[in-house]
Amino acid sequence: MTVTTSILDAITVAETEGRAIPDAATRETIGHVPVHTVQDLEDAIAAARAAQTAWNALGHAERSRILNAIADDLEANLEELAQILSREQGKPLDGPNARFEVGACAAWTRNAADTVLEPEVVFEDGPARAEVHYDALGVVGAIGPWNWPMMITVWQIAPSLRMGNTVIAKPSSYTPLSVLALAEVFNRHLPEGVLTVVSGNREVGAVMASHPGFDKIMFTGSTEAGRRIVESSAKNLARLTLELGGNDPGIVLPGTDVSQIAENLFWGCFINTGQTCAALKRLYVHESVYDEVVDSLAGMARAMPMGRGLDEGNVLGPLQNQGQFDIVKDLVDDARARGARIVAGGEPAADLGPLFYRTTVVADIDDGARLVDEEQFGPVIPVIKYSDVDDAVRRANASEQGLGASVWSDDVDAAVEVAKRIQAGTVWINGHGGLNPVVPFGGTKQSGYGQEFGVAGLKAVAAPKVISR
Questions:
Q1: % helix / strand / coil in the chain, to the nearest 5?
Q2: What are 31's strand-pairing partners?
Q3: Domain range holding 298?
Q4: Residue 397: what are its φ and ψ, rounded to 5°?
Q5: 223 phi and psi, to 5 degrees?
Q6: 195 and 266: one domain?
Q7: What are phi and psi of 229, to 5 degrees?
């Protein structure tokens, strides 16, 4: 079935002029996208520079009004945008997936518009006074991922626009249609040059990181790619916000009522078919409830509908690309070879399509196995038994990454005390991965640096200026 929308028609080019983008579930061609070059990037930077002064001069109130109008338009076009996203990325329309993601785009855009950022008085003594004001930086480069391509792009561009910056967005080569569709709606309301999408290859992304035309680079992706951006940014000293990989641990404390946490635990692991930076990637469970947790997750894994995203009722989809499918399969095969117990799944779902992998729960596995030590980024959760909470905390902290983590218990106060000892940018209690547009989000260790969302997110895309008198 071919789904054609007015937005899709607006962003696709002729076959002879662009690159084919496949449906993640069926591998059929959805449309063709332009292949932008470094020269296209140069042209976009020039246009962004030319537009920035006037855009900044509009002031916060007018920019907020425009962003709220964009949020209205996103909601009005939710179904069209969700269908493009579902086909290209693979996530189903239903559940916490495509419709949810487009709705989140509207919510985060509104939050960027409505968050108040007043000058801060940091010193006052009689007539002496010092205030911190926040000005536009200039041109922001937004380099996004393929797992939540619309939502994460909005996290980058909406606060940047609100603060008076112009933006050039570079989507993943796997999901350019989704970002082009998002920008098509934004640009119905923005002056020319304020927001441009450059749909190019890695060479274009590499040039962005070192180009003197950028004042800020925002990047979401792998730790390895983040390191390259840091190295490249030394050439222009652009400010950086980096949201990099995560191998998020969860700890289920002794005596926890598993029936009360089972659903949240499942979605903490498997939202977006596990293709989420801050998904639960390794689960440490006390021996008193270990078997119950394993059985509960396995039962839900077997029952949760998986299939093509446009088919109503499915809530899990395929891996987005062949490379990620191969990583997931390799890690599960390695765990099996080490003697781990595959309780559910553990094999491709070839009957559904070439990139589907069955929702998988792996038990009787320990630290040192690749599935535990490496980020799987797919529909697989290793469940590790422990007997001592201090040991579980030590193992949770052993990773070089520190994006998110979670603690699960009937005793919330006890869970909070354990959470204080975990090295992560965010630690959730009896949930995992839930985000709020007013609550700061960012990683520690090799999961990156800088915060997004709310007041912290606005400050991250602004230049602080101290006025003393």
A1: 40, 25, 35
A2: 21
A3: 248-429
A4: -85, -5
A5: -65, -40
A6: no
A7: -65, -40
Q: How far is CA 449 from CA 155, 403, 425, 445, in A?
A: 15, 10, 9, 8
In a domain, 1, yes or no: no
For residue 5, name the pLDDT band (cuts at 50, 70, 90). low
Count of CB atoms within 10 A of residue 461's CB? 30
In CATH, what number is assigned to the domain containing residue 326? Answer: 3.40.309.10
- The two structure tokens encoding residue 359: 């929702």
On whether both 265 and 411 belong to a single domain, the answer is: yes
The bridge status of strand 239-243 relative to strand 280-286 is unpaired
Instruction: Give the whole-angstrom CA distance, residue 223 versus residue 242.
Output: 9
168 and 285 fall within a common domain: no
Is there a domain that residue 67 lies in?
Answer: yes
Residue 277, CB half-sphere, CA atoms under 13 Å: how many?
Answer: 31
Phi, psi of 237 (to 5 degrees): 55, 35
Judge whether 439 lies within some domain: no
Considering the domain architecture, whether residues 83 and 68 belong to the same structural domain is answered as: yes
d(CA 365, CA 384): 6
| Tally of domains within the chain | 2
- CATH at 205: 3.40.605.10
Cα separation, 365 vs 338, in Å, equals 8
- Look at residue 27 and tell me if it is in a domain: yes
Same domain, 221 and 256: no
Q: Are residues 193 and 290 in the same domain?
A: no
Q: What is the pLDDT of residues 421-457, one digit of tens each?
A: 999 999 999 999 999 999 999 999 999 999 999 999 9
Considering the domain architecture, whether residues 197 and 133 belong to the same structural domain is answered as: yes
Contact by Cβ (8 Å): 276, 310: no
Distance from C-alpha of 239 to C-alpha of 236, rounded to nearest angstrom: 9
Distance CA 427, CA 269 (A): 15
Residue 161 near residue 63, CB atoms below 8 Å: yes
State the catalytic residue, choosing from 88, 101, 184, 243. Answer: 243
Alpha carbon distance 223, 243 (integer Å): 8
- Looking at residue 348, its amino acid is P
pTM of the prediction? 0.96
CB-based contact 6:185 (threshold 8 Å): no
The token duo for 461 is 């895309």
Give me the helix-helix angle, 98-114 and 78-89, nearest 10°: 120
d(CA 190, CA 401): 38
> pLDDT tens across 254-290, in order?
999 999 999 999 999 999 999 999 999 999 999 999 9
- Above 50 in pLDDT, residue 3? no
243 is catalytic: yes
Query: Do residues 238 and 262 share a domain?
Result: no
- Which residue type, as a one-letter code, is found at position 127? P
